[in-house]
Fold these 4 entries.
Entry 1:
Amino acid sequence: MLAKWLQKVLHRRSVAAVKKRELSFTQHRIHADELSFAAEKVIKRLHNAGYQAFVVGGAVRDLLLGITPKDFDVATDATPEQIRKLFRRSRIIGRRFPIVHVMVGPETIEVTTFRGGKVSSHNELGRIMKDTSFGTLEQDAMRRDFTANALYYDPQQQVVIDFHHGVDDIRNRRLVMIGDPLARYQEDPVRMLRAARLSGKLGFTVDNNTAQPIAECASLLQREPPARLFDEVLKILFSGHAQACLRQLQTLHLNNTHPLLDALLPGAEGNDNIVALALYNTDQRLREDKSVSMGFVLAAILWPWIVKRWNKEKAAGLRGNAAMNAAIAGERVQLDKSWGVPQRYSVVMREIWMLQPLFEIRRGARPFRLLAQQRFRAAFDFMCLRAQMGEIDAEVVSWWQTFQHASEDERTQMIRSAPDQDNSTTRSRTRRRRRRVNTTKQETA
Ligand code: ATP
Ligand code: MG
């Protein structure tokens, strides 16, 4: 109790003692030409119109770390309406806090007005429900999550403005929450996931005071809108360091809080399960600048759920194909509603899953039909993952590998001599069905 009180008082004192620090080029070494064309253009136009404007957040942090930023955010004292007037290709988004998306060529810059010191409304648990007050640069810095994310870079003056020792924390590779961490997690529980993602991705240690309240607040995530959690999970998956971020989720005690996070956790360790394998491949591909299909990765992450249900349906007597349809239909509400998987991904996932039983059928015209499917390649790659997990015989994989690249004649020949796993089960089922029909007929007679 006393320790908690002391911690709070000390924290308040450190916040009150915060002084604005301006770093010149020789101290920060960020070159203005490291900004994207769009970020530079947006800042220049805001300056020319008489407003303050800075690159803020992750981009400044990454530039100080020598990492190429993946996007640029801008903070300004212009209001959303004033920003809108300056940029023809822009729109205001965001319900809890308005943000302006400014489109320049293919790039989108997120422009936010400095947030004020006051939050318009909280719920009974302290969560911010609405936040429309605008404020000063200093107040805006207070409202950001971590000290490393509260740095402002002005490319014209070539200065970095730091209110919370963010530059020192970056140099010491520490993630430190601004203000009282407990209250900041209560205000917005997603900050806990951000702590796991940023520390995992950047290899930062999470400061003790910042890490400590997480276990206590973790259950607040259950009350977050599924779509927002899903967005954050996507950021973890797309970070290029998904496995490291998941390990941080465990270290920070964020496991057992949400089914979607739990579905991801087997991916944190080793390569002996399909989730880990898919995430390892994703990290590799992203680091090599290759494309990644999110539908495919999600299909792997949620496969253990589907396969369990699929086996149950098969045990209840349904054929591979029908059992898969039933399994997917049975899990649909969970996927769409509880986990907030958007339709653009769930469609791809379902198609990949639905094609899996068809790889077992290698007779008749079916292999040709499967090959002609738009989603064949993704489904085949998925089947290879399953084979690596021992779910499918390596012989089946090499058969399909050869079949894809064979000539028409060779394919016909392959089909004639293919082992016929699924047809044999179908035949025995047909025999069983016939027997059942005969018994019923006898009973009626
Ligand atoms: P990334 O490199 O993954 O984009 P980022 O820190 O830039 O990391 P964004 O989601 O782009 O993350 O957010 C931009 C900035 O907005 C952050 O750096 C931080 O200053 C602020 N921010 C984002 N989310 C929150 C939050 N939940 N609470 C407080 N500040 C936030
Ligand atoms: Mg960012």
Entry 2:
Amino acid sequence: MISDRSDHGTPRVGQVKEVTSLTNPIIKDIRALAQKKHRDETRSFMAEGLKLVIDALDLGWKIKTLVYAKAAKGKPQVEQVAARAVAKGGLVLEVSEKVISTITRRDNPQMVVGIFEQRYQPLKDIRPKDGETYVALDRVRDPGNLGTIIRTADAAGASGVILIGETTDPFSLETVRATMGSVFAMPVARASVEEFIRWQKSVDVQVVATHLSGSVDYRTIDYRSKPVVLLMGNEQAGLPVELAREAGALARIPQSGRADSLNLAMATGIMLFEARRHLLSLDAR
Ligand code: SAM
């Protein structure tokens, strides 16, 4: 059913579709975004929450569909975001609570959900400059880790995250949730091991690879002389030899206690804030 809205500043006649049925083909399509195959085919992904959707639009991400719950109807911010989505050529759906909780697979769903076009930064376009830091992740498997790393990289002021090899999908719902919105702020590139090695040789960067058998204390490294690429290993296997040997030295975070290693996202956070320590201050924000 197509609604008829005429109030000022809200989407116009025919621009908001009301949907209450889970078998509606558009809703079926959105539900299919839970599968990576469908996300890849449609180059789409879902992000939940009004603030996130507003931030994404502010940052120029292309919205395909905006979905909001009937209960959010009439809220000025929701009306504004709906009008912005329409202006950008997006579809706007007003749905029942049942539909939005099915889409998001949550009992207490957010009232607003956006379906956006995926965006990767081509690796060849990354030419790191002084003061920039990149995180390169070898075969990261866990969506929570990847999302947390994207969020932490954003918080530390890094310039991008490079995914090497077969990794978990940065646009899965779980990863996007863990980024807390930083997926829209942090450029993500992807590369095979060979592409990464070729790229790294073509740019003037200092690659700091982290390894449990590293001989260099991460606190003794000079992170100021060149742009830095922090190279982090897979959760189970750590860094493979072909990547580890590309780095000048292998850095280690000293540990005590019984734990064999740190969680990947935790280790990345420690490295990021050390590498950018000289650039971060409480007055910067
Ligand atoms: N079993 C794996 C191994 O032997 O390397 C453990 C990998 S660890 C969970 C995942 C990644 O986090 C590592 O490859 C490394 O990049 C980083 N990491 C974890 N603890 C670290 C430490 N103490 N020093 C340096 N890097 C560390």
Entry 3:
Amino acid sequence: MTTAGLILLDHGVALLGVACWFATGVTAALRRHRLAGGLLVAAVLATVARVGTVAALAGQGWWFVQEKVLLGLPLLGAAGLAAVLIAGPPLRAARQTPGAVVALLTAGYAALAGPVVTFTAGYPLRWSTALIAVSLVGAGALLTARVLTVPAAAPVGAGSPGLSRRGVLRLAGGVVTAGAGLTGVGLLFRDPRPVETGGGPGPAAAGSRATVSVADLRGPRAPAPGGAVRRHTLTARAATVTLASGTAVKAWTYDGKLPGPAITARQGDLIEVTLRNADVEDGVTLHWHGYDVPCGEDGAPGATQHAVAPGGEFVYRFRADQLGTYWYHTHRASHPGVRRGLYGTLVVTPRAAAGEPGLDLTVPVHTFDNAVVIGDREGRTVHIARPGAAVRLRLINTDSAPHRFTLAGATYRLVAVDGRDLNRPGEIRQTGLRLPAGGRYDVVLTMPDTPVTLNLDAGDGTGLLLRPAGHTGPDPARPDTSRWPELDLLHYGEPAPWPFDVRAADRHFTLVLDRALAMVDGGPAYAQTVVGRGHPSVPDQLVAEGDLVRCTVVNRSLETHPWHLHGHPVLLVSRDGRRGSGSPVWVDTFDVRPGEVWEVAFRAGNPGIWMNHCHNLPHQEQGMMLRLVYDGVRTPFADPDHTH
Ligand code: C2O
Ligand code: CU
């Protein structure tokens, strides 16, 4: 069973246990002794089964079970055992005692505490969580006892002044419960550690090394020798745009266009883009997704610049040294900014084009409300290609969810992922390509003399039709590609040596992704969390220039998290502990599906302060973001409440 399946199964068994324990308590209270006895057996069995599911899940990694093993199960075990001992004998004798009902309901509270902790706090288990959970279960037990049993205080005039023995016990229980609860709540307000060092040295003492401001980490002002300057001015503004297919979209745009103007360059050119903001109230920036620009050009508000407010301007300059397919988008209020249209494509081609020109299409996919748009139109777009011509399709996913592409009618090769070439990618056919949010695939094929279709997702007809020049036959119907297998990038292409030995990493960070109650941008939220916290309270990752960094990304949740680090491509090392057997794969965005554990590695060779986040932009907005900070780099742009 997959880890995600085990997570679901464990949730199910946990909830079954909760239901059984409460049902036992309630039926016992109603004096349905036989039924209660049967339910007690079921509750015990569900609890034992729970031990099994947690043990199975533990085999996938401690991150998946920590709070269950350290808190949920012990609490339930203790309360369940007490319930069996206290309620078992009277139930067998078909008697009811208030103590039995209290014990059974307390086991119910303890059973409930487990999943509540899992869903509201998750990993890592903190003392505050444990103390609050124990105290709530204790409070539940005491209140139940108070409601169901004789008052603790001795009746007036009964001769013994003060409290009975039971009263003393309850008072002590109340004090312990309240003390634990208050301590737990107090601990909630401890500040999280502001940096994580990943096992490497901490920050160099202030004054012992020069520091640099991100404001000074700017790009060159001239192209490489022989290169051109590609100058653009992009003005962000609200506009109603009529797509080529006729649909009108109320959008936020760069230059009134959807997508924004395509930016292209030859390798070595200088790209210079002046961003202006006409009327996007939240402010805008330009982030060059996947392009390893100097940090000051990265467009991350609150880290590398202030967002450009209406009337403002910012000039970005960087050299187009990196070949391939990229995109740009605002990084200020990315959600909803990108969804509403603040994005465009960036493609860098070699200085000398190899061979004769074929068809080179940039294919950004975006969803506006319910209109799925390729480039600037819905539905199927037709292109003509000469049989035998080389065709390159640059697929770009600008949405927050993955897209599945299928290419029917030709064999093809996936030659580049996130702009970086694969090593000796083989021919494939009848295979689906799942493209993560924010990711890019470059697909290459030789045009046959029959039509070829590129189909999106479920195959509602959205896609491309490549028609051979001179072809007069009917266009092909939509092929049913739903059963095609999905290409596994870890096993595609041929291996090649890696530029470093990942076992010799200088730092190792672990990011555990989940949902929990946490502070996000200064307010409480049911957040998308990284190690239990929401942005900006997730500790920074500290690195020093030149470090080899390993990162383990664990998805404890039931949603996919397309993980994206700015400024550095990462090498995919392994998934669920298994290394790939194919080409090295360098990406800037990789999908971490439910229950998956990915390992990636990168060289810290681009000093700055870099955002590291989930590219499902609603998740990013709900807290799933942190920073990778180079030692000695500071930012004058901090604006802790508004950094996406
Ligand atoms: Cu494409 Cu931080 O994002
Ligand atoms: Cu996410």
Entry 4:
Amino acid sequence: MLSAVTISLVPEARGGPFVFWNGLAEGCAQAAALGFDAVEVFPRDASALEVSQLRTLLEQHRLKLAAVGIGGGWVAHKLTLTQPDSDRRGRARDFIRGIIDVAADFHAPAIVGSMQGRAEGEVTRDQALAWLGEGLSELGNYAERKGVPLLYEPLNRYETNLHSRLSDAAAWIRSLPTRNVRLLADLFHMNIEERELGAALQSAGDLLGHVHFADSNRQAIGFGHTDPTAVIAVLRRLGYQGYLSAEILPLPTPEAAARQAIAAFKHATQATPLASGSSC
Ligand code: LER
Ligand code: MN
């Protein structure tokens, strides 16, 4: 398993669960200094991502790109795959294709989280799921042609009413006419929605494509009350070799959050003792 830490490039997302906020250069330098394997980047849109700068920084710091979040499409542009206006749904797909193009150049997947939207107003849940399924199928196949999976992330009930549990989402994804959508398991959302983290991860099985490594209070693992032991045990049983990515609040400071996240990752995956001052 590999470690990753988040960098947000979206000013409108301030207050959100991302560790580094001061640009790619500073975020990559700090991630590398702390020993992360990769960064997960949250751009405003595809055109706002400085691809050549990112490539240089990743090479310079020997980092990989773990994934690219597409939530900027919702936060900054108010687009989702399930809006009643077909023109806006089309623009949402275009937006996501743009991110897939950029991410695929780095062999990284794009993440459909908040751009899944929700059923509300005139849009029933069945209708929203039909639109979401069409969107993910088309975009999943598009990503497949680029050689990368597409990640779909169930969110807690306060963020979506479409899929909030991994087992429901897994069954639904298996019913779609694409074989290229994988599940993102965010331990923060799961702490709200799942009866038991290990069993939920097990239900995702080989669909599991990415993990957001966040504690119950959305801080670094060890700052809340999640016991990562069972999580890691199940991930090992599943043969999961992907990322545990710290999509967490930058608390008490970005550096302290990142330091705790990498200490907890090493402790959980390599049985490394935690540095004094850390807990988990
Ligand atoms: C995105 O990865 C996520 O977890 C959402 O809660 C974004 O707010
Ligand atoms: Mn997440």
